[in-house]
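Support case: fe (ii) ion complex. Customer-provided input:
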Amino acid sequence: MLTKTSPTLADGTKITDLVNTATREVQLRALSDPEIYELEMDRIFGRIWNLLGHESEIPNSGDFMVRDMGSDSVLITRDKDGQVHVALNVCPHRGMRISVVDAGNTQVHTCIYHGWAFRPNGAFLGAPVERETMHGKMMSKEQLGLKKARSTLYGGLIFATWNINGPSFDEFLGDTKWYYDMLFNRTDRGMEVLGPPQRFTVRANWKAAGEQSAADGFHTLMLHRWLGEVGNYSKKIEGEVSTGDLSPEMYGVEISSPHGHAMRCIDLARKIKRLTGLDPEKLSVAEKLAALPPVGMSKEMVSQLANHLSEDQLKVMTTMPPQVGGMFPNVLFGFVYLPQADGTVVGSMTMHAYIPKGPDKLEFVNWIFAEKDTPPELREKMLKQTIQLFGTSGMVEQDDSDTWPHMTKSAKGAMGRKSTMKYQAVYETGKPAGWPGPGIVNEGFTKDDTQWHWWLHWRELMTTEA
Ligand code: FES
Ligand SMILES: [Fe+2]
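Agent response - structure generated as follows:
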């Protein structure tokens, strides 16, 4: 049951008025205001399903890692039965952190302050000097366990929420699950991380990165123009001259979601044509899969797809697959085809989470994946390409993480904070004929709709109470 409340900021502004639905504008102050940030920790990050990592990061019994869920540190563990647990990394005794390291392996987590001890599943084991019952007699041992979050695995990705009775993870994904399954649930053995995630700090508000991840295709033409001039997309079909103009790549299908998720589905026809010299329209699904296997897969692996995906999903996957987008509120995925100088194509499978660390600071976490069955040689190429383009040293995201701090600074200026961000490029197209997938679907040149839906959901969560 959600209750409408209109929180009001100290200067009398209502949160609901920060997003103007008539003109599709958002007050820039949303990117810097500490009051808004505090409310987000509770109403957004306290409620949504947070991406914390992948189970392949903690493969063995007793493995654990420490991550952040909004403003809280959490302990992610694997117990003796192989179950993954997520618990608040706060000692129920006096509030010391249970784990002060990033990752490790243990069957007993002992607080370094007074020594209260816990199992990987969060159960309280006991306190030192047992005969003195130093945990007291007022509460049972069952009541003294770690505060557990509700967690789930999706394609091995670990998600958790404090909203214990809230929507299920599938409800959270809604219609977009049909598309996400094409990325995360498509092979027999699933995916795994290629090493621990890269992590780095950006002096920016988390929403600057979060709303961009809601499928902002437009900025690519300007901010990442080098991709078309000298980068992976500079090579054109024979006879075409490389102008640096990436706009032909920006036509496709975009999926928006009332839950703020978003994705860009990008046409594969040009790549298939270049690789086979044939007209993609005349190729069957199987022929297209053989010509250009999905990102991260070899030709030998494509037969697995039919075990997991419907015919309609395969049709989309071989014509207009989701390649980049976001999961509300702070996750980006990239399952991107990257043309190589030798005419081949290498895929990149990457996910980012932008962890809020204050109104003007975020931690950028970058996971790089492959399918467990991806052959070593392809895996090596994927890793190299992904590191080169995405994450800490990646050329694409050095561009992005240059803009976010500037936007955050603009949002602090006495005049700048009164500016607005505009999302007024509106789709007027709708679904392409015969499109089999669900959701809010529009075809054509990239527009602002996906990001606008992101803000609408932000507003909805910020103005309702669970
Ligand atoms: S604070 Fe953890 S044992 Fe005292
Ligand atoms: Fe970008």
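The chain is about 25% helix and 25% strand.

Case will auto-close in a few days if no follow-up is received.
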